[in-house]
Write a structure and sequence with these properties.
The structure is a homotetramer of 326-residue chains. By secondary structure, chain A is an alpha/beta fold. Helix content of chain A is 49%, strand content 15%. In chain A, the strands form 2 sheets. In chain A, strands 6-2-1-7-8-9 form a 6-stranded parallel beta sheet, sandwiched between helices. In chain A, helix 12 links the parallel strand 8 and strand 9. In chain A, helix 1 packs across helix 13, helix 4 packs across helix 6 and helix 10 crosses helix 11. At the A-C interface, helix 1, helix 2, helix 3, strand 3 and strand 5 of A face helix 1, helix 2, helix 3, strand 3 and strand 5 of C.
């Protein structure tokens, strides 16, 4: 590369006008500046738009960290309903929190500096600055374990994959704001690869102890594998938006490399870093060595809080989709 | 609290003698200084010693992040063999890497700044600064999928829990340095709650396509739940050492609160932080609100790299255990 | 506090409409959700608005990290010109980069993954994903050292405080987009407490070796102290917006506690954390013990990238200021 | 590079023997494993040893973050006295804390979870989990401002550089454990480039108001520049150990590139990361583009808590220095 190749474009300093500015207009300023987090967010918006507009691309959204209770429940449900995303892979806990609201419970605005033992005595659980009550969990435990017998019976006691199990629950919900309901209605696969590690595990344990039938509902840990493999291998192109990381990110990347030649688009939003060697913080460069993400893929990793960055991206996306394509 | 209660003890500045100093002697200096990371590591060593010495305490070790390929394989296998820990909960990937070595493969010292596309063309995978070859994965794929028919047959095609499945593998291994083998020999439960999210998932998929029997090996996602619940409820006291976080940490904490009144000892080593609301970075204070960790528990969270901090703790522990108890 | 006091307000899930949404409308959604980073950013916007609207509040803006070259030069210059902020305390390097552009140089959009030795051979310097050329530094070195004789002569060789020195430079600039020029024109004090640690130090060294007069320009390290103390003690209320941390944050907090009873408003945007004990990551709670920030102050710390968060805050502020006050 | 070049060396898993293990023996295990933080710490120890053993290398130690009050005061003073390091560049606050103890004050082991307003009322200041009392600050204020008249008089009211000022203080101290005293006794330059941003600034302000002489003590912000430049240019080789980052790191790097062709050895211990573009988190690769660190330099950046990592390095160094060279 010649010297001038490194010096092609100036940083254009952002100018915030005194008048009303839309989210996407601000993202355009981020793009013109192009550095540090602003540049990465702008790139993330471009890639997100491209994968959503690409009719031959299957878009995987991965969900980790307590972002559903924290305020992104509707954002995610709407993305499913509007078919901006085709497949969702989530931690089970996020769907537990979706169901807590579907069963009439709530999440409360709390604070991160409180006396946790006082909360304990009040049967209030804390997730950073969110509060949830024990009674809302009990409501979920009761409502969901009741469904289990029915689901087992309806499926002739055949082992289910996690997404089949999720759809069975969604079928029985009424809350239109529920992510699980939205996945069921749109037949969007919603995989929970670590389903056992959540309140689902506890509810299963309760259900098991008092099940009416000897033939228990069974969830096969591996059954979903062939399904996600099929989705990946039957797609022309693969896109991924990672919220947080963890098992959901790994699951999608693994499917992309084993069933297909890797992802074509990838956006990761995380606060995790590469140095300690965990998957969540691993760079997109590293994924190239595995073939999980293609060398030629459009890809970016934003170091930031999902609750700040992802709504920005979705607002920018919707504004762009109202306009003509790039 | 009176003013003097805040001013009880001076920071004793560390003094590094020019002569030979043992790891535990350095930890004693950390303890005397008592601040920032040094203070937390010293406290972690004290709590680790206490839970190991406490004959009525069940010690859970949780393993996440690629720490087995990075050099802690023997450390963990030895802790199991010496029965310093009673239960292990791990990401499946760490056990995949244990098995790669058990099947004759290797991990190589690499670098984090390389051209990943070159690695890709050479069929070398990168985990931060570790390299693994595709052929070592293929060796694992072949070796392990061969075991699957046999395991299914030996168990009369009954669905297995993840720890039963792990023991079945361990039974068939010869490598004495293997964590999986050590768990089998000592009958230490080794749970993999997200087993599907790993090369196990891919190998299962391979096996499924060419299985000799129609009755496939099946792993029940929920079957292990009652087992870990029983272990917790049958213990007088519960201790936990978290390496990294993720699903393994959540699984242990969840068992501790649902089967028992929470953990009595807890040490967490992580680089994750609380602000984004993920479980891995959540504070030990937050866990009190849930009852996952007791208010009165001895507990500490060390912000640091597991590869640095945990060997320090183990070396200090072994040195202490050679002496008379506190 | 009673149980119900913890459960006063639900998390309202964000809804991103398909139509055009302004930045401030999105911030209102952040506010309604109220959790994790979104809640903190919303609070930061509220506090920023309040301190700017408060006619008896002196607003200090502190600038650290390479945010001026990265695209915030105009944002900061505009805040000064519009008198949204009353005092600026900055790392010297940020003003060096302001001057590089004032002297006709540029910052270029680069990348964080390049061969740095190639850049070295091309005399291109890298700041994460920004490139700057040596010739633009040389232009600055020449232009600025020429000013030094003149500044020394104009001030009768009296030692200057850093803000006086900055104004002397600003007086001699023509670039209306320059932060230094804006500070001079509006007589906004712009302190550089660590001025020596920057290209200013090198330029001084050059100047010193070839100065025409024996009486050198002199900058008194301590002279600015009484000035910032006077500003603080003559203000009814004090507000602070910290971009990054470092010496600038410490300087403002120290003035607030020694000249006054602490800050009344404080917003901090940083990626630094408290555990290692550095000032930049220290919590706002910690500052209460010192009296640097009042217990009753409106205050929030946002964990995030300044390039993402601060433009959001400024866009929200300007939109709000166009409307009637709260 | 050929395929086999990437696969030269296995990860040797650490083995913690049950018997006594010295710190340096553990570091050797880190070296054999060679990955993640362990590998970086082992490399840091090797480089530190080399630069200390290299008789033609000037070793710069940079000090930031509140590590002196946290327990490293003696470690640093001993490194100076043993002439392991040749130049120290520090934040002023660390030397303020050194002087607090030299004037008979103390730092106390505290906690990070306390009611800071209670501390405020008790006139106790908090630095993460360290407590300091107001009376110990007052003792410092009184003792130090008394010295100022004397120092001004002894220097005929000539402006001082920061290291000259520090030596003048050191000359008047009796505490043999003081870093400032050690620097004076060994004539080790100890630069405080941001001296004004600390209690020194406040004490100067006090002194100024009641000074007996009209001719005030004056510290010239730029005077030290030529001194550090001379040290660098008169050295055959340059080494740097960075504790934390900030102004001290920048000062040394800047001198290395302007007076010399960059550093030959560099070890950085920090928790800061590159993504937000701040100097403290910038990579050693980035410094190559500037010429601050040579491409051929031996260099490593450890992501970790200085209070954990640096004592390990010093203990390992001293153990090695007792043996014959590599």
């Amino acid at each position: 590369m010649k010297r001038e190749d490194f010096l092609r474009e100036y940083v254009s300093h952002m100018k915030i006008e005194s008048t009303t500015m839309t989210v996407n207009q601000l993202i355009q300023k981020f793009d013109a500046a192009g550095c540090f987090g602003a540049g990465r967010v702008a790139t993330a918006c471009d890639i997100f738009e491209k994968m959503v507009r690409d009719k031959n691309c299957t878009v995987f959204l991965t969900v980790a960290g307590a972002i559903v209770p924290a305020g992104l429940r509707t954002v995610i449900a709407d993305l499913i309903r509007k078919r901006r995303v085709d497949v969702v892979v989530s931690t089970a806990a996020n769907m537990v929190h979706d169901l807590i609201e579907a069963f009439g419970g709530h999440h409360y605005k709390g604070h991160w500096l409180v006396d946790d033992f006082t909360l304990y005595k009040y049967h209030i659980y804390r997730i950073y600055d969110i509060f949830v009550t024990e009674e809302d969990y009990l409501k979920l435990d009761a409502g969901l374990s009741d469904m289990f017998d029915e689901i087992a019976r309806d499926n002739n006691n055949q082992p289910l994959a996690t997404h089949e199990f999720v759809w069975e629950i969604g079928k029985r919900l009424k809350d239109p704001n529920s992510i699980v309901r939205a996945a069921y209605e749109t037949k969007t696969p919603l995989f929970l690869p670590a389903i056992r590690d959540s309140e689902f595990g506890f509810i299963y344990w309760l259900y098991q102890q008092r099940a009416k039938s000897k033939q228990l509902l069974q969830v096969d840990a591996f059954k979903e594998v062939s399904e996600i493999m099929n989705i990946a291998s039957n797609s022309d192109r693969l896109g991924m938006v990672v919220l947080g990381g963890g098992v959901p990110r790994n699951t999608v990347q693994h499917a992309a490399v084993t069933a297909k030649r890797g992802l074509d688009y990838a956006v990761i939003i995380t606060m995790d870093r590469p140095e300690t060697g965990g998957l969540s913080g691993s760079t997109l460069e590293e994924t190239i060595s595995w073939g999980k993400v293609k060398r030629t893929a459009e890809k970016v990793m934003v170091i930031g809080d999902v609750l700040i960055v992802f709504p920005l991206m979705v607002a920018s996306l919707e504004e762009r989709l109202n306009k003509k394509p790039l």
